[in-house]
Write a structure and sequence with these properties.
globular; 4-stranded mixed beta sheet; alpha+beta; 4-stranded antiparallel beta sheet
Length: 375
């Protein structure tokens, strides 16, 4: 096992897993897990080695997200969004922030989805206007921001400042005056990932907070953050599937029908459902591995695989966790078992932008030779 996976497993065993049920029950942010992951070098895993980071790529990040998701979906989502935002900070951000992320001392996240355009993250309605003295004023109603109020910075989208184009990106400190969270999060699943709306009213940032070119933010997001988000989302779903499949197998093997002197695992119908769970999980793993290989080798179908993988894995996770609830019977409904928590967490993939329906449209456009987005 690689050193980073050894370090990760220690954090999972000592911090993430013991707190997972409490994080879910109270809907609290898993700060102790984030701190431990930072100290262990996991938050800086995808940062450049010359900045003091791990210098690892997407495959290593996917392994991290998968393992964390198997114990705590909320913590895994925080890490996932951190890695996706880090990809843009690494490409366009200031050295100080890059070094802080690499050292595990800075948590970042994406702030794309907005109240005015919902899951259509590619069409920001927020504004960026000159404020004088080289500063820029940002006004926005972000609809969902993972780690809102907990992250140190947001990779923030807006309409362009002056250039043509659909989007400009900014690095916004979460402590900036004018940022507020109108409400908390009391959701069905991923209850501890701190996902809330964030409103910006007259937030001023320096002009050099711009990430990349004015008006070029969508291209940066599609080339930089989106592949990380989609691939790591698939790894997240895979982690849930592996966890409930293992838990279901243990439950079926350890639960007996005394009148038959047999375990539940010895019942043919139950075995069929367990086999379906294993098949969907293994198929998803193969799909994820192929997507990573396509990216690493520059295969012609790499972007198609990227667009497919979150949708495929997300729907598979919904199916597998649903089967886990079925084969687990009444035991699966008990919160201490953990299956119902993963059942709830799995549903988030369907609605997180880009949603499953949006991705299916993108896939159809790609295979039909149409542009990804309408002009």
């Amino acid at each position: 096992m690689s050193d980073y996976l050894d370090a990760l497993q220690r954090v999972i065993d000592e911090t993430v897993a013991p707190a997972a049920a409490d994080v879910d029950h109270k809907g609290r942010f898993p700060q102790e897990a984030v701190d431990a992951l930072g100290h262990a070098g996991i938050l800086g895993l995808a940062s450049a080695a010359e900045m003091g980071g791990g210098g690892k790529g997407m495959r290593a990040a996917a392994a991290v997200v998968e393992r964390v998701a198997g114990s705590c979906g909320s913590t895994a989502m925080v890490v996932l969004m951190h890695y996706a935002a880090t990809a843009l900070v690494e490409a366009h951000g200031p050295e100080g922030t890059r070094r802080a992320i690499a050292g595990g001392q800075h948590l970042t996240t994406l702030a794309f989805s907005e109240a005015g355009s919902r899951s259509h993250f590619w069409a920001p309605q927020s504004s960026a206007t000159p404020a004088g003295n080289g500063t820029v004023r940002l006004d926005a109603r972000k609809s969902w921001v993972t780690s809102a109020g907990e992250a140190d910075s947001y990779v923030w989208s807006s309409r362009p400042l002056a250039a043509e184009g659909p989007m400009t990106l900014w690095l916004v400190p979460s402590t900036a005056a004018g940022l507020r969270q109108p409400s908390g999060f009391d959701g069905l699943g991923l209850r501890g990932n701190g996902s809330t709306p964030v409103t910006a009213e007259g937030v001023e940032v320096p002009g050099d907070a711009m990430l990349g070119a004015d008006g070029g933010g969508l291209d940066s997001a599609l080339a930089g953050a989106l592949p990380w988000f989609l691939v790591l989302s698939a790894a997240f779903s895979l982690g849930l599937m592996e966890a409930v499949t293992a838990e279901s197998t243990a439950h079926l093997a350890g639960t007996r029908l005394d009148h038959l002197d047999q375990s539940l695992l010895q019942q043919p119908v139950t075995r069929l459902d367990l086999a379906r769970m294993r098949l969907r999980t293994d198929t998803t793993r193969a799909f994820l591995d192929d997507t990573l290989t396509a990216l690493e080798t520059g295969r012609a179908d790499a972007m198609l695989r990227v667009l497919e993988v979150k949708a495929a894995a997300g729907e598979a996770a919904i199916a597998v966790t649903d089967l886990a609830m079925k084969v687990g019977g009444g035991a699966a409904f008990r919160k201490e078992v953990g299956i119902e928590r993963r059942f709830r967490d799995a549903r988030a993939a369907r609605v997180m932008a880009p949603t499953t329906d949006a991705l299916l449209d993108f896939v159809g456009r790609t295979i039909g030779g149409l542009p990804l987005l309408d002009a």
